[in-house]
Amino acid sequence: MFRELTRIKSVLLVVAVFVFITGCVATKDYTKFNNAKPASILVVPVVNRSVEVSASDYFLSTITIPIAEKGYYVFPVYMVKRVLEDDGLSDADLVHNAPTQKLSEIFGSDAVLYINIEKWEAKYMLLTTQVTVDLSYVLKDGDTGEELWAERQTMVYVPQNQSTGNPLADLLVMAVNAAVTKAAPNYMPLAKQANNNAFAYPGPGIPSGPYYVKPKPGTTHQN
After folding, report:
1. How far is it, in rounded angstroms, from Cα 84 to Cα 63?
2. Model-level pTM greater than 0.85?
3. Which domains, from first to last, does the chain contain?
4. In this structure, are strands 128-141 and 147-157 parallel, antiparallel, or unpaired?
5. What is the sign, positive or negative, of the torsion defined by CA atoms of 215, 220, 221, 223?
């Protein structure tokens, strides 16, 4: 009996340590971010690691609003892309490898946000199509180049098929829906949700900036 109690206590201790370590890992350190106190954020061109060549251009249209709603000035993303191209930085990988201080100096920004599209794909499965958007975010100080914040979000969508009561008809509908989703997947809602989740605070995101305006009652704007 004593041995059994000892074994149970040992197991509980291991579980408790695991939970504690997991909690510590999940907690972000905002010390550098709070010391930097950025008011303006420069979103540089996105590195696209997916096979969808147009993913980066589509994604750029989703990123400004969630950051601006957090209370930060966001430089117009397409203007930034054009200016960098004129400056010889036409490739996103070149931009990400350039010194953060140089990028910040060009636009006068307090911080620079780097985003990688890890996945932007529609994968055909048996009678359905799984749409996945996987994004990684890193915010760096414009003066020092130090990392202030980082996050990664993966969003997956699988169309839900409603039953008609006719098995053969259901299979046909499922096959058609899967083909349509594969041919023209809608990535934008997933990208927008990933951004909202990434910047949500309290949560994994960043604290509100100096231009934050408290949302009116009944809105979904997050602090």
Report:
1. 18
2. no
3. 28-199 (3.40.50.10610)
4. antiparallel
5. positive
